Amino acid sequence: MNAASAVLEKDRQAFVEVCKKVAIDCHVLNRRATENYLTDPAVKAIMGDKYRARGPYESLKDVNPAWSKSDNWRIARMMQETDLDGTDLGAFLDAL
Known about the structure:
This protein is mainly α. Helices cover 34% and strands 0% of the residues.
């Protein structure tokens, strides 16, 4: 996946359809993964200087060294609300 307009995988599209059917707010992130919104300073603050933030559409398997999804919350807590300004994730969170 290398663009916000890329077609969703079947299982993810099915999840979106179920959410719509039962009236649950669901937003497919433009960058597809929350890891793609984490900032470089936040990643480095938690994981160390040998780590870097992912690009907007970069897969975790393409980043070396990679961190575990279980570290995301620790990285995210180093960020400010303003780090998400102008992103679809920021707009979605603001709308909640």
